[in-house]
Design a protein that fits this description.
By secondary structure, the chain is mostly beta strands. The protein has 2 domains: 38 residues; 448 residues, Porin, CATH 2.40.160. It is built from 2 helices and 28 strands. Strands 3-5-6-7-8-9-10-14-15-16-17-20-21-24-25-28 form a 16-stranded antiparallel barrel. Strands 12-13 form a two-stranded antiparallel sheet. The protein has a two-stranded antiparallel sheet with strand order 18-19. A hairpin with a 3-residue loop joins strand 16 and strand 17. The longest helix is centred in the first third of the chain and has 48 residues. The radius of gyration is 44 Å and the shape is elongated.
Amino acid sequence: MSSRRLLLGTLLAATALTSVAHAQTASPDDRMRSIEQQIQSLQNELRNVRRDLHTRDAQVRAAQKDAAAARQAATTPPPAPPPPVVAAQPPLPPVLGAPAGSTVIPVSTTGMGKIQIGGVTVTLGGFVALEGIDRSRNQAGTIDTNFNGGIPLPNSANYRTPEFRMSAQQSRLSLLAEAQPDAATHLSGFVETDFLSAGTSSNSNQSNSYTLRVRQFLAEWDNSDLGLHVEGGQGWSLATMNTVGMLPRHENAPLTIDAQYVVGFDWQRQPELRVVKDFNQQFWAGISVEQPQTIFGSSGGPNCLTGANASTGVGGGTLEYAQCGGSNVNTVQAYSDSIAPDVIAKVAADPGYGHYELYGLLRFLGGRVSENGGGRNYETTGEGVGAGMILPVVPKMVDFQVSGLAGRGVGRYGTAQIADVTFSPTGKIEPLAEYSIMGGIVAHPIPTVDVYAYGGAEGLFSNKAYTAGTVQGGYGNPNVSLAGCTVELGSCSANTSGVVEGTIGAWWRVLKGNYGTVQLGAQYEYISRNTFQGVGATKGSTTSPSSNENAFLFSVRYYPFQ
C-alpha cells in the first residue's frame, strides 16, 4: 500500500513538471487536452487505491473473526463422541419372587441416610452404642433397670453386692420407607430393632451373642384431605405421651440412658391397630386396640422354669390364669389368658402453646379355676384414666412435662411393672387400685447439649387382702410374717407398695457433620422400693421392708445418619 502511495506522489510531481514544460511549447488546445488526460489518469489511480483499501479492511475483519473462533475453541471442550453401537442384549433373568415382566427399579441417593428406590424414599437410622452402668446393689442385669422386683430386699445377698456392667446391646438399627401415591395420601413402613434380649444360649462368657429383637414394626396410611391416619403393627402404645399430635415416631420418651426409662413413665410397645382423626392438626382424637397381658400379684399359672403346676386356690381349685409359652413364643415364660384386647381412646390438643392429652383405658381380665370334674371361668375388667402435658417454659430452651395414670388393673402400663391383679379366696381375679406419675424438665442451654431431670412414682392406693381360715391371701396382707425380709437368706414374701425414682443426666453432641454425630451421655439415678407392712418376728411389731438403688450410667453413641 505504501508503494502505491509513493507511485501516486511521483505521478503528481511528474505531471506538474510535464505541465510546466508542455505549457512552454504546446498550443493552448493541446495543453488543455493534456491536462484532462492527466486528471482522468489520477482519477483511475484513486479508484484503484480505494479498492485496495476496501480489500484490506475485509481481510482484517476476516482475520479478527478467525482469531475469536480460535479462542472460543480453546476454552470449549470437544463434543463427546457418539456412543458406540452395541448389539441388543437378552433380558436379565427375573429376581427371585418378583412378578413376571417386572422392570428394574431405578435407585439413587437423595441425601444423608436417604435412598430413592423408584417412588419410595428409604431413610436409614440407628446408632452404635457403648454403655455402662454401676449399681450399688446387684441386679445381674444389663443397661435396663428392673425398678420393682430387681431391687433386692435385705434378705438377699445381692442387697450387699455392687454391680458393674458394660453393654453394646442398646445399639439400634432402623429403616423408614415412605411413598406419596398422590397429593393427599402418604404411606410409610417403619422397622426398629436393638439387641436388648437374650436367647437360651446367650451369655457374657466369651462371644456375648445376644439376640436381635423387634422394637417397632408397623405400617401407616395418612390422608391429609380427610385428616385420617391408620396404623397397624407393633409400636408405642396410644397410652404413651407424644410431643405433638398422636402419630407414630412422635413419642415423648424420656432422654435417659437407662433403657427402662423412668419410674412413672406410662408406655408399652406392642401389637396394635390405631385409627386417628386430626382437625387441622391442632386437635386429635384416636382409638386403638392393643395386645393384652396381665401381671399377677401372686402366682396365677405354672412356673415355666421349673415345670411346677399352676398354684392352688383357697377352695382347693387350681388357678389357670396363665400358660407356658407355646408355638413361636418364649416357652420359659408364662402368658396370661386373654379374652379381648386392651382398648384405649385418646384426645389431644396442640393449640399453639404446649401439648395436652387425655385418655381412657379399658382392659378385659379373665381366666379359669379348675377343680376335679369341673371348674368355672371368672371375667372382670380393669379401667384407667391418664393425662399429660408438655409446656415450653422457655421456647426452644426449657420444656416442662407431667403425665400420669390412675385406675384398677393398669400396673403393666407403668415402667416399674407393678402387679395388675391379685385373687379372692375363691380364685376370682381382683384388680388392684394403682397410680403412676412422672414429671420432668428438659433444657437445651446450647444447641449441642441437652440436660434432663425426671422424678416419678408408681404404687398402689391400698392393699387388697383377705383371710380365709388360716390362709392369709391377696396383695399386701398385713398379717403375713415378714420377719425373714431383714435377715440375709431369710424367706420374704413382701409385696411392693410403691417405687420412687429421681434421675438427672445430660447429652453432649461433641461432633456433628455430614459424617454423622458423636454423642456422649452421663446419668445418675436413685430408686427407692417400699413394701406393704407385715408382722415382724421380734416384739410382735409390724415391719415394712424397703430397699434402694444408686446407679451411675454412661454412654458413647455414633449416629451415622444424623
